[in-house]
TrEMBL record:
This is Peptidase S8/S53 domain-containing protein. It holds the Pfam family Peptidase_S8. The keyword Flavoprotein does not apply. It comes from Haladaptatus pallidirubidus. Gene3D superfamilies: Peptidase S8/S53 domain.
Length: 583
């Protein structure tokens, strides 16, 4: 094996890589890699570098120690970087330190900050002072990584196909290690080097700041992702450095994976081998876990599949648990549906949408369907007695992965779904809230064409009742999937996004009433629905005069049987988020 050498200019330039893969945003949201472990299989790591020391874990040299050549001879002065060998695994070439810094340099006032600035870095020295290593030593280091239970193995080196390394990669992959490899710097098509070319390894090419492919990148069908690798800021044992190579690209992917694995994600959830001992095509195409997440959230930057694979790694999209935003649309007829595609990809998302604004006088509400991992469809739905055409309205949405979340302030959030029809069904929370939560629900499907809203009642710390409600002139309704979010009331942040959850008093009727927010929002996203079932007539909410500090709401009844629109007082649950973007 040989290190994939890169040019080092020794110049200081403005860092673009963290901004381009949105790792700074991920760090700001609290994803720092703390608790995750990356094995840097390389020339070692400088053991006393002040920007790495706090994150250094274990170290081990395989077959040759610091200042020892591949063949056992001592390194000459021209071979080494002059770094002091405090340990056998110290870096005598700089390559491993440069790679480790890209992945996990601490966040301070000098040099650069790593993609995962609190990850634990383990120095497994498999390359000598000339950047050469032994295949058997490399295989042993991969197996060692798996046996330690570490999360990620970064392999910024290149070699030929050889069985002992392939077997080690298979062993580690099945043991839960995410394997990341640099494709090589030969700049040719169809020449991805090993171990990156093995199906168990994520093969990474290098991109430039203008989203072109770094021309040194080896490409081919094995390529899975691309990452910044041209003129990337890092540092060596003794100096700052600006480097180019797929060696520099790979640790961006390794560290992004660590951000996820620090929060309990597995390397893959679909690992299967056929009778010949090869990874099945199905499990390679649909690995699930972190590997799948990195693929589905990668950004297409317009390169070919052999150059970028699934695209440019995106740390913020990878760690996202949802997205919030707004739409403004009219409804030309009942059959028209619009769609929203998220910037992220989620395992089992729920869509909550509305209420709509009040530009048109006909009663209307939001309806969604076709919820997938990355998108959903919506429309402004009028009741069946109306013509279905509606003027333009604005509505806000929350698209969020199902699960249980705890906010920094201790507030608890739960997102899930339930099957129900026009009769009330009880949904028990899968966690116990410390107080009665705010609950917002929404039908996710259209199994029957009749317009509906959801109505909630009997909300407690353990669960709530929910039903579908057609207009008065309607009848029974087929079962639909209803998504919900339950949030303990208060002000907090959700994955770094400021938000609040609250109730109104039991005073909201068909007359306009104002909600004053607990903080001021520059670009509020407002979602609400009825919390109680005090009035049985079919009804939904409408809003007007939304500002950064308040909004007006009212209960709007349908009129399929009579023209009376008076509605008894209800409690309203609401959420307010800052801005429109990923959560």
């Amino acid at each position: 094996m040989t290190a994939i050498n890169h040019g080092t200019t020794g110049l200081q330039t403005l860092s673009w890589r963290a901004d381009r893969i949105n790792s700074e945003q991920a760090n700001h949201k609290g994803y720092t890699g703390k608790g995750a472990h990356i094995a840097i299989l390389d020339s070692g790591i400088d053991s006393d570098h002040p920007d790495l020391q706090a994150n250094l874990g274990e170290g081990k040299a395989f077959y040759h120690s610091c200042n020892t050549l591949f063949d056992g001879r001592s390194c000459s002065e021209t071979d080494t970087n002059g770094n002091t060998c405090h340990y056998s695994w110290d870096d005598d070439r700089d390559h491993g330190t440069i790679v480790a810094a890209i992945a996990g340099a601490i966040n301070n006032d000098s040099h650069v900050v790593g993609v995962a600035p609190e990850v634990t870095l383990h120095a497994l020295k498999v390359l000598d002072c000339r950047g050469v290593g032994d295949y058997l030593a490399t295989a042993e280091a991969i197996v060692y990584t798996a046996d330690q239970g570490w999360d990620v193995a970064n392999m910024s080196f290149a070699g030929i196909e050889i069985e002992v390394v392939r077997d080690a990669c298979k062993y580690a992959y099945q043991k839960g290690v995410l394997l990341v490899g640099a494709t090589g710097n030969r700049g040719c098509e169809g020449c991805v080097s090993y171990p990156a070319a093995y199906p168990e390894v994520i093969a990474v090419t290098a991109s430039a700041s203008n989203d072109t492919l770094a021309d040194i990148s080896s490409t081919g069908p094995e390529v899975e992702l691309t990452a910044p690798g041209r003129y990337v800021r890092s540092f060596s044992a003794n100096n700052p450095a600006v480097v180019t190579g797929t060696s520099a690209a790979a640790p961006h992917v390794s560290a992004t994976a660590a951000l996820l694995m620090a929060n309990g994600y597995l390397n893959a959830t679909n690992i299967a081998y056929d009778a010949s001992g090869s990874l099945t095509q199905e499990s390679y195409d649909d690995p699930g876990g972190v590997r799948g997440k990195l693929r589905t959230t990668a950004e297409d930057i317009g390169l070919t599949a052999n150059q970028q694979g699934y695209g440019l790694v995106d740390a913020e999209a990878a760690i996202a648990i949802g997205q919030r935003g707004s739409i403004s649309t009219n409804q030309p007829n009942r059959t028209t549906w619009e769609s929203i595609t998220s910037e992220g990809s989620f395992t089992n998302p729920v869509t909550l949408m509305g209420p709509p604004s009040t530009n048109g006088g006909q009663p209307s509400h939001m309806r969604v369907r076709g919820v997938t991992n990355e998108s959903f469809e919506y429309q402004l739905e009028e009741w069946a007695y109306l013509d279905g055409s509606h003027t333009a309205e604005t509505a806000h949405y929350l698209f969020m992965d199902a699960g249980a979340y705890t906010m920094p302030a201790g507030m608890r959030v739960e997102v899930g779904d339930i099957q129900t029809d026009n009769t009330f069904s009880r949904q028990n929370f899968f966690q116990t809230f410390t107080t009665t939560p705010v609950v917002i629900s929404q039908a996710q499907t259209v199994n029957e064409a009749a317009p509906i809203v959801t109505r909630n009642r009997h909300v407690s710390s353990t669960g709530f009742d929910v039903r579908l409600q057609e207009e008065t002139a309607g009848g029974n309704h087929a079962s639909e999937t209803v998504g919900y979010i339950a949030v303990e009331p208060g002000v907090s942040t959700l994955n770094g996004v400021p938000f609040e959850a609250g109730f109104t008093p039991d005073t909201i009727t068909n007359n306009w009433a104002s909600i004053t927010f607990q903080r001021v929002y520059e670009e509020p996203v407002f979602i609400a629905n009825l919390h109680t079932y005090d009035g049985g007539d079919p009804a939904a909410l409408r809003y007007q005069s939304l500002s950064g500090s308040a909004v007006d709401i009212r209960v709007e009844e349908e009129q399929s049987v009579d023209t009376e629109t008076g509605h008894t007082s209800e409690i309203v649950s609401y959420l307010v988020f800052e801005g429109q973007d990923l959560i």
